[in-house]
Amino acid sequence: MHKTIIVSNRLPVDLKYIDNKLHVKSSSGGLATGMKSVHSEGNGIWIGWSGLAEDTMNSEQKNEVDQAIAQEKCVQVPLTEYDIDNYYYGFSNKALWPLFHYFQAYTEFEREHWESYVAVNQKFSEVILQHANDGDTIWVHDYQLLLLPELLRKKNPTLTIGFFLHIPYPSYELFRTCPWRYELLQGMLGADLIGFHTYDYVRHFLSSTSRIKEVEVNFNQISYNNRIIKVDSFPMGIDYNRYHNAALEHDTNPEHTKSELMKNIDLHNQSNEESKLILCIDRMDYTKGIPNRIKSFEYFLNKYPEFKGKVRLVMLAVPSRENVEQYQLLKRETDELVGRINGDLSTVSWTPVWYFYRSLPFNELIDLYVSSDIAMVTPIRDGMNLVAKEYIATRTKDTGVLILSEMAGAAKEMHEALIVNPNNFDQTADNIKAALEMPKEEQKRRLDALQKRISRYDVERWATEFLKSLEAAKNNKPPQAAT
Ligand code: ADP
Ligand code: G6P
């Protein structure tokens, strides 16, 4: 019986030593939270990086880490400090991440980073090949591992290889600026099936491939090296029932599941029953549009001053990639903006922006989702955005409004949200007002449609459809080989 191996840079658990004690916490980010339920239902393993540097640990710690990871049905690819600096922070997060999100000015192309990216993709392939048997399926995820499909195919052509990109795929004009564009495409083309969140990303990929590699593209199939590679869109869903049921449980026992964070907000709010809460949850990343969101909230309060004292923005940001300068600058900018706006507008009984920079456990996240009247998900650019879907899943009382950026992949499926351009403050302010004043019947009508779609296309269905399509793609032969 063949097995399926999931491979991604980030494992579903993130390990850290604090005061010589091992801490294991759930990873944040859409890939890890989404694939986690697919992994726990299946019988395969997940291969990836633990979050620790191999060369900073003693042998006792290495054993402890191996055991903790094995308990999660995972296997680790040990990375050194050098790998982490150059492959992870370097090429993955200073070159590919900004490039693929259209932040060209942030993109750094360094040969040393690239060489490390090649070497670490090689490391991944070696670990995978130790665990894979002939005929197994390898499902590779995301931009940190673009070279892996080809490396695996070269060593073992019997493997069925799928690749899914969790971030946007940029237009050809942007992608062509990468000095290693040819090698990156060559790496991806080792897969039997290449998946993206939206049809636009598929189109951009096909256009880059045909212009850079001069392969033959036929509708959504690429003929290359006597193989046919299928390219398709698979919009990723969430574990709908997990979020929905947790919210139902919260409804039956709200005090028991209340987070410290919400208790504080509630206490502060007791003086004003009417006050509404707008929630934002993101990794602290420049693609998420955090400063724009704060500025558009300020713009809203100045455009519609009758709402001052009646609405608060609760922003939860999870620390991310803190070694990269652009992330440090973003943190500073956010701190300053929140400080300035609260300084300018707060009264004795009202603080407009509540900002928390931390990761939260699942039940506390649910508490925040459930307690909010509106969610504002306004990235500048986002492959999909699962927070938008999680918020909808936690609406159990037919109330709640989602304000969603048209730049998120999720906007392609969530038409009933209030869709905004995050750079248009007037439009965003008007939509905040519309959300605050939306009649209950309209909230319900929009939520019904969204919930129906998101519960049907959940993460399990997404994974099943990808794997089914991968199985079919594996048996594809180019026309000339078939005759
Ligand atoms: P990305 O993958 O770019 O981080 P997504 O919105 O697709 O963006 O996924 C983010 C995931 O991380 C969601 O599942 C969300 O619940 C989780 N998350 C975001 N912020 C926090 C936080 N502060 N604490 C815990 N989990 C978080
Ligand atoms: C996004 C990426 C993932 C990544 C996650 C968290 O969701 O698509 O590949 O794991 O962000 O980022 P990190 O760098 O902490 O893994």
From TrEMBL:
GO molecular function terms noted in the UniProt entry: alpha,alpha-trehalose-phosphate synthase (UDP-forming) activity; trehalose-phosphatase activity
GO BP annotations listed: trehalose biosynthetic process
Catalytic activity, as annotated: D-glucose 6-phosphate + UDP-alpha-D-glucose = alpha,alpha-trehalose 6-phosphate + UDP + H(+)
Involved pathway(s): Glycan biosynthesis; trehalose biosynthesis
EC primary class: transferase
Keywords, sorted A to Z: Glycosyltransferase, Transferase
Subunit structure: Homotetramer.
Protein name: Alpha,alpha-trehalose-phosphate synthase
Residues of the full protein shown: 1 to 483 of 736
